[in-house]
Amino acid sequence: MPRSVANRLRGDHAAGGPDVELEHVTALMESCIDEQVRAHAAHDHPAFADADRRFHTLLVRSSCGSILIDVYEGLRDRQMRMNFGAIVGMAGRPELILTEHRALVANLRARDAQAAVAGLTQHLDGTRRAVTRGAGRHRSSR
Questions:
Q1: pTM attached to this predicted model
Q2: Which CATH number fits domain 3-137: 1.20.120.530, 3.20.20.70, 2.60.40.2470, 1.10.287.3510?
Q3: In this protein, which residues make up the domain named GntR C-terminal (predicted)?
C-alpha cells in the first residue's frame, strides 16, 4: 500500500469520514478479516492473501482519490505475490497480520487517526521486511 495512504489517514480522511461511511467500510474490513481467519484455519494461503488485498483495497478506496485507486488496483498481481510471500513459510505471520488488521479497524472506529497511521506504518514495514526475508531465503535456496 502506498505511503500516501498513511499520509491521507494523517489528514483524518478515513477516520474522519461520516459515521455511516466509516461503519460501512470498517464492517467490510472486518468481513475480510473473518475470511482471513477461515483461510488461515484451512491453510489456504492464496485465499488469505486475496482477503488481505481486499482489506487494503477497502482502506485505499476510503482514503484516496480515484487516480491512486486505479494505480493501486493496477498493482494487484504484484501485491498478491508480495502478500503470499509475506505469509508462506513465516511462522506466526498470519496471526500477526490478523492482530494488526483488527487493531487498524479498532483505531479507525475510534477515529484515532494517529494510532491508525502508526499501526498501518508498523504493519506495512513488517510486511516489507517479511517479503524481503522471504525473497532472500528463496534466492539462497536455488
A1: 0.75
A2: 1.20.120.530
A3: 26-125
